[in-house]
Design a protein that fits this description.
By secondary structure, this protein is mainly beta. It has helices at 14-28, 56-60, 73-84, and strands at 39-42, 45-49, 70-72, 89-99, 102-111, 115-123, 131-142, 147-156, 160-171, 176-188, 199-212, 217-230, 244-257, 268-278, 287-299, 305-317, 326-328, 342-344, 346-365, 377-394, 406-417, 421-430, 435-440. 7% of the residues lie in helices and 54% in strands.
Length: 445
């Protein structure tokens, strides 16, 4: 078993259980009728202004309100946040009004820069000893159609280079989207099942096609090829005895996403279910991985939001090479065990988080500072977050139960900054009573 993986626990969980119970009680007290749900009128038309580069349909496609819709203040705010979530605008305002017998929405936006140089600096896995740096170039709105082209190069710890292109609506009539990408990364070994400071060269190429059925539901199919080469062969880490695994991949995924704001949602649901095949008989690799990520954002009184999440990934079929194991402690984290690594073939976890707005988010016009128009609107907010996390990893044939889970809970402050940047500071305790301070620059759930 990998570092940090435990078959049994003898730790007290009274604190975590009390915290979880309190959050669940708060959830059941959510009001069915929220402020702003009163119908203002039946909408006749939508007018969009300020989108000098962006096609109008890109904005309209994110809105629930349209001709014939019942207009409420709550629906206006929901659509405002969804348009902002496109990542194309520094400011989004929506006004409802009438002119003679016509009732209309006036949507006014201010656009971001669309061709953006991206300086890159950070610490791999949050470890200050693992410094990486580099640069990239992003065009996030090619042809005004929300098409995105991104290329970057990083050096230092785990160097990488990649280029990707996506068009969220290349076939407007059939609502089809297209994605593609090429990448290379040299990654140092993370697994403790295969000790050694060896490097893993990863090469990937993929294409994807997806169908958006409506505002919330999408079905996606992607296919590609992956090559993995280790500079020091480890039996079992690659399935090919020469240390080179090259295999085809395919993934089918269904997504339901009604979140009002991707970067920091306050209401809505997110669900992703997928099944992936790695290897089709062309090499040694051949297994299925399936899983899901389910999130519910429940609005409570006074602008408070309760986030409930469950996540799992499970393998079946042939042997799993070491480089495709799953972890808590890298991408997925258990706060309270933030830097502890749990390794396995499969993974399951959950989160409860209460988000209490302390300020905003509000948009400010700072053009008087003499900065470019694309940077002259700053959106700022501060929220208090109370949370509980739990999770477990395992290998096939290994028995797991409630005592196998590692859990933590705590609280902190979340800062919502311009250009969709979120900084989270918190303090968490593990179920063993150990505390830790966390500075998290990743996008929150």
């Amino acid at each position: 078993m990998g570092r940090g993986h435990r078959a049994t626990h003898h730790r007290s969980r009274q604190g975590l259980l009390a915290f979880t119970t309190a959050l669940l009680i708060a959830s059941t007290q959510a009001q069915e009728t929220r402020p702003g749900s009163e119908v203002l009128g039946i909408l006749d038309t939508v007018i969009v202004a300020g989108n000098t580069a962006t096609e109008t349909y890109v904005i309209l496609n994110e809105m629930t309100l349209g001709p014939g819709s019942e207009v409420t203040l709550e629906a206006i705010q929901y659509d405002r946040r969804r348009i902002y979530g496109l990542g194309l605008f520094t400011r989004v305002d929506i006004y409802y009004d009438s002119l003679q017998a016509t009732r209309f929405l006036y949507v006014e936006v201010s656009e971001r820069w669309h061709l953006i140089p991206v300086p890159i600096f950070g610490f791999r896995d949050g470890d200050p000893k693992k410094v990486y740096f580099g640069a990239g170039i992003l065009h996030n709105n090619l042809r005004g159609r929300n098409q995105k082209l991104f290329a970057f190069l990083t050096l230092g710890y785990d160097p990488s280079v990649a280029v990707s292109y996506s068009d969220p609506l290349f076939d407007h009539d059939n609502r089809l989207a297209f994605t593609s990408g090429l990448s290379y990364a040299r990654v140092r070994n993370r697994s403790e099942l295969y000790p050694g400071d060896f490097s893993v060269n990863n090469y990937t190429a993929n294409l994807g096609l997806s169908k958006r059925f409506n505002l919330f539901e999408t079905l996606a199919l992607s296919a590609g090829v992956r090559g993995v080469v280790v500079n020091e062969y480890q039996p079992g880490y690659t399935l090919d005895p020469e240390g080179r695994d090259i295999f085809l991949t395919a993934t089918l995924a269904f997504t339901y996403d009604s979140r009002d704001l991707y970067e920091y949602a306050s209401r809505g649901q997110f669900a992703e279910l997928y099944v992936a095949r790695n290897g089709f008989g062309e090499g040694k690799v051949g297994f299925f991985r399936m899983g899901g990520d389910l999130r519910l954002y429940t609005p409570l009184p006074f602008g408070v939001t309760l986030l409930s999440r469950g996540v799992a990934t499970i393998v079946t079929g042939g042997a799993v090479p070491g480089y495709m194991n799953t972890y808590f402690g890298y991408g997925e984290r258990i706060r309270g065990y933030y830097t502890t690594v749990f390794e396995g073939e499969s993974l399951a976890g959950g989160t409860l988080e209460l988000r209490i707005p302390l300020f905003g988010p509000r948009t400010y016009d700072v053009s008087s500072l003499g900065i470019p128009q694309a940077f002259s609107f700053w959106r700022l907010g501060v929220s208090l977050a109370l949370f509980g996390d739990t999770g477990v990893t395992w290998f096939r044939g290994q028995k797991i139960g409630l005592r196998s889970f590692s859990s933590g809970y705590g609280g902190g402050i979340d800062l919502l900054l311009p250009y969709s940047f979120v900084v989270r500071t918190s303090y968490a305790w593990s179920d063993a009573g150990q505390g830790e301070f966390i500075l998290d620059l990743r996008r929150p759930l």
